[in-house]
Specification:
With 322 residues, this protein is an alpha+beta fold. It contains nine helices and 17 strands. α1 (2-30) packs across α3. 25% of the residues are buried.
């Protein structure tokens, strides 16, 4: 028993030394922020994914996976570190069944699909779930699999749609078919009669960071009221008004626009029908509501109502930059 205890201790120490060496090498290759987790983009959580982050690609249109001198993944200084080659190898190699899960399947479903001959690599059927893959073209049932661990979609939500799945008037009916296998959810619901900025993703941690009131992430709305807001009304809203007699809102920002009865209202929480209830508390009424900004990322002017934009890593970073 004593020998086993000593063996376990030694094994644990060796494991930690190896992990520390890999982490140090990862910092040299990726940068310290991306390894320690301060970067909110989930693809930079020091998980060994199969391809290089697009933001580091100097020429993504012509060559998706280049080996340029400017690419930090191939910085010549990194090769002086004996663990860098191992880190890069681990990062770009993945089992086929793991890759196929990005199509929205469980690991066991992916393995079954592979064994059934439904999966191809570069147009060749492969039936071995343990097959190692990198940047090949991989399909299931003829559909190309997006190998990104998570996707971040921005919908310019139209009125008449609800933020619930399984309904004909669901916002998920507007999501392109290629994302249909992913377990998507919305980040901060909008009412059926509310328009604008709606984030949709399959990254649960990201959703929590967006909607959690303790994060104090700002959301800005364009509000049109039935009647003008007086200076006293605006002060009540900004100081944190009590709604329904017992719920006190956090302080907010309320600014007039150049149009009559139109305001920019910025809040840091998301209670049920909050803005509508806030205006009711000052004896007014919302007649038009549109979310136009989340954090530091505004709704793009060129994104038409009903259209969806897939956000890049830098776009996601901008959300948390405010």
């Amino acid at each position: 028993m004593t020998i086993k205890i000593y063996f376990d201790i030694i094994l644990t120490l060796l494991k930690r030394i190896f992990q520390a060496a890999i982490a140090q090498s990862a910092e040299r290759v990726l940068g310290k922020d991306e390894v320690t987790g301060s970067n909110p983009v989930s693809s930079f959580r020091c998980r060994f994914s199969y391809k290089f982050p697009p933001d580091h690609n100097p020429n993504p249109d012509s060559d998706p996976y280049p080996y340029h001198d400017s690419d930090p993944y191939h910085n010549s200084d990194s090769y002086h570190d004996p663990f860098c080659g191992l880190f890069l190898f681990l990062r770009i190699i993945m089992r086929l069944d793991k890759y196929v899960t990005y199509a929205g399947l469980t690991r066991s479903e992916a393995a079954a699909a592979i064994k059934a001959g439904r999966v191809t690599i570069d147009n060749i059927i492969v039936k071995n779930p343990a097959e190692k893959v990198t940047d090949e073209s991989i399909t299931i049932d003829g559909n190309l699999i997006d190998g990104s661990e998570y996707v971040y979609l921005l919908l310019n939500k139209p009125t008449g749609y609800v933020c619930e799945a399984g309904r004909g008037d669901s916002v998920f009916a507007l999501v392109p078919e290629k994302y249909s296998r992913r377990k998507l959810s919305v980040c901060g619901r909008l009412d059926k009669d509310t328009e604008g900025f709606l984030l949709i993703t399959d990254d649960g941690d990201f959703v929590h960071r967006i909607i959690s009131p303790v994060k104090h992430l700002k959301k800005t709305y364009l509000v049109r009221s039935a009647n003008p807001l007086s200076e006293s009304d605006i002060k009540k809203l900004e100081d944190g008004i009590v709604i329904d007699g017992n719920e006190k809102c956090k302080p907010c920002e309320c600014k007039r626009t150049y149009k009559a009865n139109e305001y920019l209202l910025t809040i840091t929480e998301g209670m049920y029908h909050q803005i509508k209830r806030m205006l009711i508390a000052v004896n007014n009424e919302v007649i038009y509501l549109k979310r136009i900004k989340t954090g530091g990322f505004p709704l793009p002017e060129g994104l038409k109502t009903g259209e969806i934009l897939r956000l890049s890593d830098s776009d996601v970073l901008r959300i948390f930059a405010d």
